[in-house]
Amino acid sequence: MKRASVNRGLFLRNLLFLLVLSLSTTSACAQAARDYEPRVGQAGKDVVWVPTPDELVEKMLDLANVTASDYVIDLGSGDGRTVITAAKRGAQAHGIEYNPEMVELSKRNAAIEKISARATFAKEDLFESDFSKATVITMFLLPQINLKLRPKLLDLKPGTRIVSNSFTMGRRKSRGFGSWPKAN
């Protein structure tokens, strides 16, 4: 009987130790996520992160004529600024980003701006994501990535507006400020 009591006490102490260790590790990880600060030029899966200046985000959304009836998808959404700005205009907006730390940062930024219901973010690979619901696509990706995405973009519904910061889609000339032709 005494031996069972000692074993039970040892078991409970070890269990308590593991619980405390688990909680402290979880707390440290949560703190690290809150403290995450992206660095300009940091390497990503396919590109390096360079934030789009806020004025250019506004111009890109103006060019796409984003309204509250749009569903905006930002490819490679980084810190979430384009998605958040579109959501502030009343649009439903979604960011696709491969870096999980950037996704969490974006979600925190959207929460701070109180627009999380309209600004969502997902850790996804651009080449495996479905963006068929978009009425507007924004992106700041390298030319070779744009070209690789081109078949998916050409499959979007007619009238979808696509705005690319700085880089083209190859030889394709834009029609109507970068929109695919409208359906008849």
What would your notes on this structure say?
The chain is α/β, with parallel strands linked by helices. The protein folds into 2 domains: 1-35; 54-164, Rossmann fold (3-Layer(aba) Sandwich). The protein is built from 5 helices and 5 strands. The protein has helices at 2-34, 54-63, 81-88, 100-112, 143-154, and strands spanning 71-75, 92-97, 119-123, 136-139, 161-164. The chain has a 5-stranded parallel sheet, covered by helices on one side. α3 links the parallel β1 and β2. α2 (54-63) packs across α3. The model is unreliable at 15-19, 24-33 and 175-184 (pLDDT under 50).
Question: How do the strands and helices of this protein lay out in sequence?
Answer:
Layout: H1 2-34, H2 54-63, E1 71-75, H3 81-88, E2 92-97, H4 100-112, E3 119-123, E4 136-139, H5 143-154, E5 161-164
Parallel strand pairs: 1-2, 1-4, 2-3, 4-5
Helix pairs in contact: 2-3
